Amino acid sequence: MKDYSxxxxxxxxxxxxxxxxxxxxxxKLASGELYIVPYSEENENKIISRMEEQARNAQxxxxxxxxxxxxISHPLxxxxxxxxxxxxxxxFYCMILAIIAGGAIYYPAKAITxxxxxxxxKKLNYFLDNKKKLNESIEKSENMILSVSKKAxxxxxxxxxxxxxxxNINNIDxxxxxxxxxxxENIERISxxxxxxxEPISEDTKEEKGPVLKKT
Length: 216
Prior knowledge:
Elements: H1 8-11, E1 15-21, E2 24-29, E3 34-38, H2 41-56, H3 65-88, H4 91-140, H5 150-161, H6 177-193
Antiparallel strand pairs: 1-2, 2-3
Helix pairs in contact: 3-4, 4-6
């Protein structure tokens, strides 16, 4: 999962992902450190629970007060700096213009980053609300994967080949919010129509047509 730690101390306890190697669980922390514990189902479940708790509490980092002040003041500084530069041709005003230019890049970039994180948080909550239904339904119907991205299908197949649940907090970054919504819609559609799910339906399946009758 993405890093939603609040500060450096928090980052030393924030688990981004984990893997199992040589009988040990290797957890990657937001601080860049690795935390290693002996493998057991109980230890793995504790890590999963902590990651899910992190996901439930995830929030984009708020702008600092200084950032908000600079964001408001930048547009006001621009006309002042230009007029002074024209009249005085001073290096000081060139420096102000450089700061303004830097801010013009920084703030939109930060806004975009926050927008991406907000969508990711929406995905995390959507996943947590539907993970049980997703995992149970994928075992019953292969047709769940219709209209889902190739990346998501590949991840589902990989996890199933390892006898693991396809949808879990440790691989949530492999799926988009659109993938999860498409999967849930497929579940609801199958449930509504009550289709026989013994044979998977291929996206390439074409409607069979009868013989064309010629006019006489």
